[in-house]
Design a protein that fits this description.
Elements (H helix, E strand, L loop, with lengths): L1 H23 L14 E4 L2 E4 L3 H16 L1 H4 L8 H8 L8 E6 L14 H8 L15 E11 L3 H11 L4 E2 L7 E6 L8 E9 L3 H16 L4 H5 L6 H23 L10 H5 L1
Parallel strand pairs: 4-5, 4-6
Antiparallel strand pairs: 1-2, 3-7, 4-7
GO cellular component, one term: cytoplasm
Cofactor: Mg(2+)
Family: Belongs to the tubulin family.
């Protein structure tokens, strides 16, 4: 639970970096509105506001609105939230999903130029639209869900999945591991949007970095006294957490090892322990 929280916190700061990248690249106003929460302009000078968490929270809210759209609006292919965990998590331990959102904007940016439908699907699998620092397109997919809002047909979904499949690496035992949802009501100010949720081994470097940062503090016994005075909290809890995190990384390593090799099914029961 602790590692999952830190992993989510890290993704929040990655969103801040993504916002700054949007602000500082391209012509002013081409990606983010000049009078939005993220940017302001004085002649040709771009200035980032001092409170980026407002924009970050907006992006998170935008993600949640897309995630829950099927429960709030009608659609030809609505997806229940329970279906996400049922279809995207083949092993209980490997339940960390990578999310991407297109268009990537805050709720205030209602005038962001519309993306072509096919380009929107391509953007969802590019590293620039991921909400953590990861590149799932060059890692191994266990499963993937696409939640689309707007006037999009099932045929559009299937066509783009078939177009993108050759460039994506799926595990041998789940080559058709796609889950799709269609909501007919688009976000305010947009003709359509796409939220992609991927169970992908690209999260492994994040856990490796987390372990490295933790071990540097743990070797110095830094801050341990803040936790050990709590009833029920013992130093062995930290050792167990390190062991659990190491096992998780090793499971991702085993899956990555099958990427370019023969299609050997992993030991499902072993991973599910």
């Amino acid at each position: 639970m602790i590692s999952g929280f830190i992993f989510f916190s890290k993704s929040l700061f990655d969103i801040v970096n993504k916002i700054e990248q949007m602000v500082n690249s391209g012509k002013l106003g081409s990606i983010v509105k000049q009078n939005s929460l993220v940017t302001s302009s004085s002649s040709s000078t771009k200035t980032v506001q001092q409170k980026p968490f407002d924009a970050m929270n907006n992006i998170i809210a935008n993600l949640l609105l897309n995630l829950t759209s099927s429960a709030r609006f009608e659609g030809s292919l609505n997806m229940d939230l329970n279906e996400i965990s049922m279809n995207l998590v083949p092993f209980p331990r490997l339940h960390y999903l990578v999310s991407s959102l297109t268009p990537l904007c805050t709720l205030a940016d209602v005038n962001v130029p519309a993306r072509r439908l096919d380009q929107m699907f391509s953007d969802a699998f590019s590293r620039d639209h991921q909400l953590i620092q990861a590149d799932p397109k060059h890692s191994l997919y266990l499963a993937c869900a696409l939640l689309v809002r707007g006037n999009v047909q099932v045929s559009d979904l299937r066509r783009n999945i078939e177009r993108l499949k050759p460039s994506l690496h799926f595990v041998s035992w789940n080559q058709e591991g796609w889950k799709t949802g269609l909501c007919s009501v688009p976000p305010v100010g947009h003709s359509h949007s796409l939220l992609a949720l991927a169970n992908n081994t690209c999260v492994k470097p994040t856990f490796m970095e987390l372990k490295d940062r933790f071990m540097r503090l743990y070797k110095k016994k830094a801050h341990l006294h803040h936790y050990l005075h709590i009833d029920g909290m013992e130093q062995s809890c930290f050792s167990e957490a390190i062991s659990s995190l190491s096992d998780l990384i090793e499971e991702y390593n085993e899956l990555d090892a099958t990427k370019n090799g023969p299609g050997i099914d992993p030991a499902r029961l072993k991973i599910a322990v």
